Amino acid sequence: MTEFLDMPLTVKPHPRAKRVLVKLVPGKGIEVVVPKRFDTRQVPAILEEKRRWLRETSRKMMERGYDLSGTPPELPTNLDLKACGRDYAIGYVDRPGRVRITENGLRLMVTGPKEDRETIFDALSKFTAAKAREFVLPMLDSMSRRLDLPYSALRVRRQKTRWGSCSARGTISINAKLMFLPVELVEHLLLHELCHTRHLNHSPQYWKLVARHQPDFQRYERLLSKAGRLVPAWFG
Fold first, then answer.
1. Which residues belong to any copy of the YgjP-like metallopeptidase domain (predicted)?
2. What is the CATH number of domain 78-230?
3. 107-112 and 86-94: which strand pairing?
4. How far is residue 62's CA from residue 69's CA, in Å, rounded to a whole number?
5. Phi and psi of 106, rounded to 5°?
6. H-type helices in 9-116, by residue range?
7. Angle between the N-to-C axes of helices 117-147 and 183-195, in degrees from 0 to 180, rounded to the nearest 10
8. 171 beta partners
9. What are the tens digits of pLDDT across the range 196-221?
10. Which residues pair with 167 in a beta bridge?
11. Whole-number Å distance between alpha carbons of 227 and 158
12. Closest C-alpha among 121, 8, 117 to residue 67
């Protein structure tokens, strides 16, 4: 069984898995993580039990722009980081060895074996994450001071679907994918998380605080919910 509901299916035994986990992974389709000695003949029955959830969740994810087809993306010819207004042209030098990225103005040179796409995608994703921290930290600091909403630390992560979060200690985590969003959506996301330093929930008090600083926040929430389509399929 290699497909289910017209999506690619991958079964991954994991030595630390204690139960079966079924998830949808952008760019890959359905992933089933099972304990090491699990009888994989049970997987079809488990998927049938999850059929309704898989259908509904995949529909919502695809509406938001996430690719679940599992089609391998091509090597990109540019890296358009809309958040900071930088659109890098990408060139490739096909040679053995480690994958390296050299930045020269708005041009990136990727050196390494071109057939190793996953490693190239990973290198470009790391480059994007580094730019996210470089770009977002000053913006977050400025907004924090201006709105009198202090935070303790910033973390940049490469998550599958979540745009950001705020811990009880005031640590704000953002998804490096936000670099593919327009700057006004990035600003809204940072406001959203800074307001969580006061209210660690989505209570009426929380939304009242958001509205005080951004009266049309609902428009941005709607745009953010569909912004996944702006992220290239190779990013991971």
1. 19-226
2. 3.30.2010.10
3. parallel
4. 10
5. -100, 30
6. 43-49, 51-63
7. 60
8. 153
9. 999 999 999 999 999 999 999 999 99
10. none
11. 16
12. 8
Distance CA 208, CA 154 (A): 24
* Closest by CA position to 234, among listed 80, 112, 73, 69: 73
Considering the chain, what percentage of its residues have pLDDT values greater than 90? 80
State phi, psi for 38 to the nearest 5 degrees.
-70, 140
pTM confidence score: 0.76
Contacts of 230 (CB under 8 A, 6+ apart): 65, 82, 180, 181
Q: Cα separation of 92 and 214, whole Å?
A: 43
**Crossing angle between the packed helical segments 217-225 and 204-213, to the nearest 10 degrees:** 100
Query: Which part of the chain has CATH 3.30.2010.10?
Result: 78-230
What is the torsional sign of CA 128, 130, 131, 137? Answer: positive
Structure tokens at 97: 């060895």
